[in-house]
Amino acid sequence: MLRRLLPIVLVLLSTQVSASEPERPSRADLQRALAQYERSVVRVRGPRAAGPGIIVGTEGQVLTAVSHVDLDAAQVEYGGSTLPATVVLANAYLKVAVVAAPAGTYPAAAVKPNTANLPGQWLIGIIPGKGKRKDTPASALARKAPAPFIDVNLALPPGSPLYDETGRLVAVSVQRKGRGCRALPLDVVRQQLATKVATP
């Protein structure tokens, strides 16, 4: 099963799109990211914790924080149902995980092909609403952090997606950091998945 799922994730995370230097996101950019978030974010639940995850594969592959999964299994809440999921990747050092929901058709997020130089770029995250407050898109500059991470001054729970100005997924929040979060660029996730594919 893993050999079937990993190549699919790698292809989806490697779609070629021409890169351009991003400017501060506009209101339209923020709304575009919010629409992507509402379409592709699910809740991932493990034995001890739960939190957001982002669908990155049309067959149900979900990128999330490692704190939301067990070594072998997790659950994905999607479309009003709680689905069993298989852990494809779980890396405690990088604080990231990829899980696979049952085979089906899912609304995968659009993904930026190259996320190697995120520090200094504007990123968009969705601040979860509390009570009757709605989820709110906000932007902040990505800052350098101990490699391979970046820091972003947005209070996002682990497992939350971060987007560029065109609404493409570029990183995932893996840890709270002060009033912001520490995030892992997607290029690092791609490298980990490629290593797993190469290792029998």
Descriptive notes:
It is a single chain. With 200 residues, the protein is an alpha+beta fold. The chain is built from three helices and twelve strands, in the order ααββββββββββββα. The two termini are 12 Å apart.
Protein traits:
single chain; 200 residues; alpha+beta; Thrombin, subunit H; 6-stranded antiparallel β-barrel; 6-stranded antiparallel β-sheet; 3 helices; 12 strands; 19% helix; 37% strand
- The low-pLDDT segments are 15-19
Number of domains: 1
CATH class: Mainly Beta
CATH fold label? Thrombin, subunit H
What is the molecular shape?
A: globular
Please, how many helices? 3
**Residue share in helix:** 10-25%
Distance between the termini: 12 Å
- The assigned CATH architecture is Beta Barrel
**Rg, Å, rounded:** 15 Å
Number of strands: 12
Structural class, judged by helices and strands?
Answer: alpha+beta
Overall pLDDT, averaged?
A: 88
Strand order of the largest sheet: 1-2-3-6-5-4
Task: Give a brief outline of the structure.
The protein is an alpha+beta fold.
Chain-wise SSE layout:
Blueprint: H1 2-12, H2 27-40, E1 41-45, E2 50-55, E3 61-65, E4 73-78, E5 81-91, E6 96-100, E7 122-127, E8 136-144, E9 150-152, E10 161-163, E11 169-177, E12 180-185, H3 186-198
Antiparallel strand pairs: 1-2, 1-4, 2-3, 3-6, 4-5, 5-6, 7-8, 8-9, 9-12, 10-11, 11-12
Helix pairs in contact: 1-3
